[in-house]
Each structure stands twice: as structure tokens, then as C-alpha cells.
Amino acid sequence: MKCSASTCLPNSAFPLSMLSESSLPKSKLAYLEQTTDSPYCLLMLHGWMDNAASFIPVIHELPNSHCIALDLPGHGLSPHRQDYYHFVDYIDDVFVALNELNLSKPVILVGHSLGALVASCFAAAFPEQLSGLVCIDGIGPLSLASHETSTHLANAIRQRQQLKPAKSFAELDYVVALRAKTNAISTENSRLLVERATIQREGLWYWRHDEKLKLSSPLRFSEEQAKQICQAVVTPCLLLAANEYPLLKPDYIALRQQWFNNIQTQLLSGGHHLHMQNPHATAQLLHDFIKTIV
Fold it and tell me: pLDDT of 165-219, one tens digit each?
């Protein structure tokens, strides 16, 4: 499905973002695309419980870049998985998406939070498919001390019995305000996420996302495995980390930076959703990075 920017983007704050709405023919993954004749493509992966719309502010600042922002399974307009959600399956989703997109130009993978973790692992496994890697407030896979494996496994399985049905809301504006407060983002940016993440049925609003996303993946990489994955990334990498209320602490960044072969790190004003809170600076750093690799 294709639609005009005005129908895809109800928020009037981004009138110049010429985005179309599409879905991949086989996997049915939904995505937003800004098509240009740029010699590269930015493939964007959002964070946990977010969706492709989280990249709209940055795309708006990159009018000359070919950008594709995916909705990962269970998020946004993409279909839900029949089974539970395991972290490594997202890497398969990216592999499938790139095969279906069949892009004939260099690809730079841009991931935020969960998307950054997935992008890091994809870059390690399939370096030949990428020209660059950009991680926004996330770097390398989550890891777990080996002695915590069985406890984590048990807790994750117990969670499956405690899953509750999705809540309903009478007013969309209430959901927008709630998301803005939870993520410390503006009402404007919250509306971008919420309007792609909700559906109205019988006068009530419901989240589109799969409630199973709230369950922990039963297995995590060990610290040694996470280190090996990061060391296997040969693609040039840019890490953008939040300078305010950071999810990534300085010690964590310092350790993981050492594991990468070729990484630049920049601290930006903003919180965990810094690419929405500070899109101009984010886009400028992306632009500068791209010029060094394409």
C-alpha cells in the first residue's frame, strides 16, 4: 500500500517529510519510506514498544537521504508473531527484510535501543551486507552472567502465565499524554508513536502491539558471547548516546567501546529517545558519518 505524506503523517509538524507507507510482500513487515536518489539507504530499526514513526523527526532532517524505517514484528502496523518473541529472531527479520527490499545501493543500518542491539548483532553476522552501523542509545546485545542463566530462564517462563489482556482507553489524547510522560518526550513526538501504535474498536482505543512483547526472552547471551559479537563487527560504527538520563552508563559505554574495531561515540543532549528529542543534531552527526563511509 502506498499513500501520500499527508495521509501517512497526520502530525502537521512534519509537512516536508515525503514518506510513503508500504509492507513487504512476503513477510508483511510494514515500513515507512522516504525515496530519494541518494547513493545509499538508511535502514532504521526502532526500539522496544516503539515503531517506525520514531524516526520521522530525523528523516525530516535528512530530506536528501533514502530512508526506510521498519516496524518490527508485533510493533506498529507489522503482524504479530504466532509464537513468543526471541531476541535472535529480530536478526532474522532484518535479513529477510533486506532480501525482500533487494536494495542495489550501500545500506547503513540505524538502530535505536532494541533496534541498536539487533543492528549490532546483524552487523556481526552479516558484515558483507552493510556499509555502516549507527547505534542510538544501545550497543551490542544484552548479556547475562552465566550463573544467572537458570534463574532468568525460570522467571521468563513464569511471566508467560501472568500475561494480562491489553487495556482499553476512552480518549486518544489520554494515551498520547501517558506515552509522553512515560518516555519523557513531547506531546508532538508522543502522538507520532501513538497514532501508529493504536487502533479504535467500538469507540475505545487499544494498543496495536502484541502483549507478548512484554515477556522477557528466555535466553540471553553470556558476557563472553556479547564480547565476541561486538568484536566481530568490522563495519564502521557510530554510537549516539544520551547525555541526560542515559540508559547507557559511562562505564558500560567505555567497556563496550573497547570491543569494537572501528567506532565513534558522541554524547547528545536528550534522554533515551534522543533522536526524537534532538533530531537536528542527530541528523547532522548521521550526515557527517555517512560522508566518511559512502
Answer: 888 999 999 999 999 999 999 999 999 999 999 999 999 999 999 999 999 999 9
| Catalytic residue list contains 146 | no
pTM of the predicted model, to two decimals? 0.93
Q: Which of 113, 120, 190, 216 is catalytic?
A: 113
Residue 173 makes CB contacts below 8 A (sequence gap 6+) with none
pLDDT in tens, 20-53: 999 999 999 999 999 999 999 999 999 999 999 9
Contacts of residue 277, Cβ cutoff 8 Å, sequence gap at least 6: 185, 186, 189, 269, 270, 271
Tell me which H or E stretch contains 264: strand 263-268
Asked if 158 contacts 261 with a C-beta cutoff of 8 angstroms, the reply is no
Joined together, the cell numbers standing for residue 44 give 532504521
Per-residue pLDDT at 5: 34
Structural contact between residues 234 and 223, judged by C-beta atoms closer than 8 angstroms: no
